[in-house]
């Protein structure tokens, strides 16, 4: 079982108004104004539109009209490749936007999926690249592909069996959620349990980077995913 008090204590121990405001929002779920303001100002500028919308979706802020506007922009945005950078943030943002508004076309989805499949660099771990593809090609995704989804989930299940890449579990579970694998689906249950069990003694969740602020953002994502 996730130790919420330990996770909140870890987040409150970091010098970040955003993380403190997120803790208050997750505790009470009453007034998201402060979190929305954080994401609409400097923090949002630093995260960029893709990660900003991803946080908005995970934190259940999509009923706000400005967030819906950002989601519609995400769905309409053409894919523009960045040399050496796989479109992971774009893939997850698009997957979240499609989750909320499946009736709106996502014309860049096939290009983003193809770019992820073609990426061979070592900038990001394989689990993250796989998860980004899963988010798009799963059964409820913007670009469904049953064969590819089966291959990718098999790869990640093997990793869990080997006890490796704990920091990649949250991304895979996120992909399961946005592709609408129900709570009774074996993958959904398995990755949810694995994510909950991955919590560290200090209350945070594993990240690929060691900086405490990065672990803070990852911890917010993990807590939000477990309540999505």
Q: Structural class, from helix and strand content?
A: mainly alpha
Give the termini distance in whole angstroms: 16 Å
Overall number of strands = 0
Helix fraction by DSSP (H/I, runs of at least 4): 55-70%
Uncertain regions: pLDDT < 50 for 5+ in a row? none
What's the number of helices? 12
- Please identify the oligomeric state: single chain
Strand content: under 5%
Largest sheet: none
Net shape: globular
The gyration radius over C-alpha positions equals 17 Å
Compressed to H and E, one letter per element, the order equals: HHHHHHHHHHHH
Mean pLDDT: 92
Notable traits:
228 residues; mainly alpha
Report on the architecture of this protein:
The chain is mainly α and 228 residues long. 64% of the residues lie in helices and 0% in strands. The protein has helices at residues 4-12, 17-28, 33-40, 42-58, 65-76, 88-100, 109-118, 126-137, 146-162, 169-178, 186-197, 212-225. Helix 10 packs parallel to helix 12 (212-225). It is globular.
Write the layout of secondary structure elements.
Elements: H1 4-12, H2 17-28, H3 33-40, H4 42-58, H5 65-76, H6 88-100, H7 109-118, H8 126-137, H9 146-162, H10 169-178, H11 186-197, H12 212-225
């Amino acid at each position: 079982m996730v130790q919420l008090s330990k996770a909140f204590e870890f987040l409150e121990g970091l010098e970040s108004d955003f993380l403190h405001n997120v803790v208050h929002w997750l505790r009470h779920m009453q007034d998201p104004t402060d979190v929305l303001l954080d994401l609409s100002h400097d923090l949002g500028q630093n995260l960029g539109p893709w990660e900003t919308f991803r946080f908005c979706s995970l934190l259940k802020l999509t009923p706000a009209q400005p967030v819906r506007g950002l989601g519609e922009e995400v769905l309409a945005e053409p894919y523009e490749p960045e040399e050496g950078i796989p479109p992971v943030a774009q893939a997850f943002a698009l997957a979240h936007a499609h989750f909320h508004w499946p009736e709106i076309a996502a014309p860049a989805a096939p290009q983003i999926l193809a770019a992820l499949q073609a990426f061979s660099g070592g900038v990001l771990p394989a689990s993250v690249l796989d998860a980004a593809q899963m988010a798009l090609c799963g059964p409820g995704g913007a670009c469904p592909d049953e064969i590819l989804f089966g291959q990718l989930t098999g790869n990640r299940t093997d990793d869990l069996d080997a006890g490796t890449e704990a920091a990649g579990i949250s991304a895979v579970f996120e992909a399961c959620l946005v592709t609408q694998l129900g709570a009774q689906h074996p993958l959904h249950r398995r990755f949810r349990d694995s994510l909950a069990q991955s919590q560290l003694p200090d209350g945070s969740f594993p990240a690929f980077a060691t900086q405490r602020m990065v672990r803070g953002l990852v911890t917010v994502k993990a807590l939000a995913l477990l309540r999505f």
